[in-house]
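Example for tutorial group B:
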């Protein structure tokens, strides 16, 4: 059993439609920074786009595989239901007006004492902006299209459907070392010690969920943070001790990753544990992050071919 706890969510990855539409929304409307433009290492003829704060610190990162021909996915068992992002308390009416000006419908709700806005991203991904009094300090991108006081402060919590007899609560409490901090109806919130960035997960614990289907607008996986490669190896061993099947370490250029999915322990959701380093500054200077196609050394020889296949990306619009 590791002596430390997992410190929170590292990034969340989803499938989306057109890359340009994705860029226009997450940068042009939500004001995140595109911190990396690269390819899907498992299918380099498609993009992998990363967004986050000014440098893409762990806990602020959303990543997307654009897959325009994919059928829309369906939320349900084995799929995350939604992704909540943190915004400072008192900013929701401004956010609502801003999203309305971009033709994006929102609904309001209160959850465990915090007001939130629900909206659907153009891909169909269900997003929430949670106005929290303890929005963590991040360094928002300087070129976002609105005041810094309103900027997104990273991931707040994914909402994950789990079955009542699944061991997912046990995974968070007894293996990850997180604490149950609140319940509301069938929603159970777990939080990592220290309450840093992206330190919460909401489980929707029910006897039944509709079956989900992977596709456009669905979360592909949720990644949690390991501070170092050593810590990641300890987590890999600890998960295997609990009987979980965990992959070998995969080099993702900006972090190293292990993956695990189990019908009981993760309710069929794909989980990842990613190292904090080396981060997005490993192959680009901070001022240039995300502007041009970055390839891992093993794919550099295919740059010309891939440049010809990948859709061209223009700077995001709109930005009013
Ligand atoms: Zn990932």
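The residue assignment follows.
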């Amino acid at each position: 059993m590791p002596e430390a706890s997992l410190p929170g969510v590292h990034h969340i990855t989803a499938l989306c439609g057109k890359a340009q539409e994705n860029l226009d929304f997450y940068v042009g409307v939500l004001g995140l920074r595109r911190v990396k433009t690269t390819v899907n290492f498992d299918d380099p003829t498609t993009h992998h786009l990363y967004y986050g704060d000014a440098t893409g610190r762990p806990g602020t990162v959303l990543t997307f595989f654009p897959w325009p021909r994919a059928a829309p996915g369906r939320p349900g068992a084995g799929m995350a239901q939604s992704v909540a992002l943190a915004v400072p308390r008192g900013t929701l009416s401004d956010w609502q007006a801003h999203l309305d000006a971009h033709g994006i419908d929102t609904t309001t709700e209160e959850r465990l004492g915090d007001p939130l806005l629900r909206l659907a991203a153009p891909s169909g991904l269900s997003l929430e902006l949670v106005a929290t009094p303890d929005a963590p300090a991040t360094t928002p991108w300087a070129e976002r299209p609105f005041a810094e006081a309103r900027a997104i402060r990273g991931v707040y919590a994914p909402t994950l459907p789990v079955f009542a007899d699944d061991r997912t609560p046990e995974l968070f409490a007894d293996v990850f070392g997180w604490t149950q901090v609140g319940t509301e109806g069938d929603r159970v919130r777990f939080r990592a010690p220290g309450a840093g960035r992206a330190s919460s997960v909401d489980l929707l614990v029910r006897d039944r969920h509709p079956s989900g289907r992977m596709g456009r607008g669905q979360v592909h996986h949720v990644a949690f943070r390991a501070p170092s490669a050593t810590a990641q190896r300890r987590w890999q061993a600890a998960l295997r001790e609990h009987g979980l099947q965990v992959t070998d370490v995969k080099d993702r250029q900006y972090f190293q990753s292990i993956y695990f999915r189990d019908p009981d322990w993760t309710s069929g959701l794909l989980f990842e544990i990613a190292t904090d380093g080396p981060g997005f500054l490993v192959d680009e200077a901070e001022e240039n992050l995300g502007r041009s196609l970055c390839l891992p050394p093993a794919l550099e020889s295919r740059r010309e071919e891939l440049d010809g296949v990948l859709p061209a990306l223009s700077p995001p619009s709109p930005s009013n």
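The domain at 9-309 is CATH 3.10.180.10 (2,3-Dihydroxybiphenyl 1,2-Dioxygenase; domain 1). Compare this with the pattern of hydrophobic and polar residues in the output above.
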